[in-house]
């Protein structure tokens, strides 16, 4: 057995050295384990300290409230040195979204508690295919208080937006109100409307870019009207080019239907007028019927043709009917034999149209009183029907026609007023140098001038 020197001044044999090394390793292991347990016990007793912003970043940009809640738990192992909440630019870049839109409009800028206070409008299009008149766009105007809606069709965006003036005159006169605010999106098609609103004193409100919530009422109305129009089109089987007529009829029906958004669930028409609308005259869109046709003096000519109803007219009391043979549209109340209703109901509808024509005075904005009340007919097919004759006779004592000649003016009850007006007109013409008085040559007829 040889001797090996493990340390200076010490002689050990190989077996003793092996035992010594093994003992030292065990002692080292035991000492190391004890040190680790002590260190782990020390780490658990002393949590990591740091600022709120530091742990906010370390925990994956966790929101500050969650970090503070986590630090209050002793088992989390963290301790906050402060509660300062500095702005985190990274969170703004990665998490920021749109501000929540209040469900209620309030304040003087949005007087939705009165009829005409706020009018919402939205434009939809281009539509494919075009309707039978070539229109591709539809624009609606919705009263925020009553949910009354009117739809206009147009071929271009600019033309669609310009219908606001027509709606304004119609709505203010019928509802005896004043429109104060027009709310739309920021589309360029409303630029012409901006100038008009500035002239008449109507306040303009525009929604934020890429945010449709501010004008949600008009956009939801578009969805409701289009859904009803598609359902009616699919049910009647008419070609898609009649979508414009279906849209208008859907708007007509909605204005007379219960509206959950109105107080008591009443219809827009009832809220505006105080009277529940009579909907017995409404029939299925595209219903087959027969319409009276003037024989024009021919004894054996047809006096009735088969047509299809594609809407109701708000200007003239009658149905909008389409003649399938020549694809012509006419408005008439001489409708009978409606297939989608019973015989008694069809007769009742026909009587109701005649009764409405006698009792109702049109409120639409027309060029003359007579034009507003009497049905309009094509220039190529002018005729005086018996119904027009009766209406003219009833209106003869109400509407006074202006005199057409000087003789008629001097023979009227207001001759003095007419003479004064004539003198003022002649004086104005002389002052402006419009005409030069000359003697009339013999044999020459003077031009007629009112």
UniProtKB/TrEMBL annotation:
<dbReference type="InterPro" id="IPR012337">
    <property type="entry name" value="RNaseH-like_sf"/>
</dbReference>
<protein>
    <recommendedName>
        <fullName>Integrase catalytic domain-containing protein</fullName>
    </recommendedName>
</protein>
<feature type="region of interest" description="Disordered">
    <location>
        <begin position="1"/>
        <end position="51"/>
    </location>
</feature>
<dbReference type="InterPro" id="IPR036397">
    <property type="entry name" value="RNaseH_sf"/>
</dbReference>
<feature type="compositionally biased region" description="Basic and acidic residues">
    <location>
        <begin position="12"/>
        <end position="34"/>
    </location>
</feature>
<dbReference type="InterPro" id="IPR039537">
    <property type="entry name" value="Retrotran_Ty1/copia-like"/>
</dbReference>
<feature type="region of interest" description="Disordered">
    <location>
        <begin position="365"/>
        <end position="384"/>
    </location>
</feature>
<feature type="compositionally biased region" description="Basic and acidic residues">
    <location>
        <begin position="366"/>
        <end position="382"/>
    </location>
</feature>
<dbReference type="GO" id="GO:0015074">
    <property type="term" value="P:DNA integration"/>
</dbReference>
<dbReference type="InterPro" id="IPR001584">
    <property type="entry name" value="Integrase_cat-core"/>
</dbReference>
<dbReference type="GO" id="GO:0003676">
    <property type="term" value="F:nucleic acid binding"/>
</dbReference>
<feature type="domain" description="Integrase catalytic">
    <location>
        <begin position="107"/>
        <end position="276"/>
    </location>
</feature>
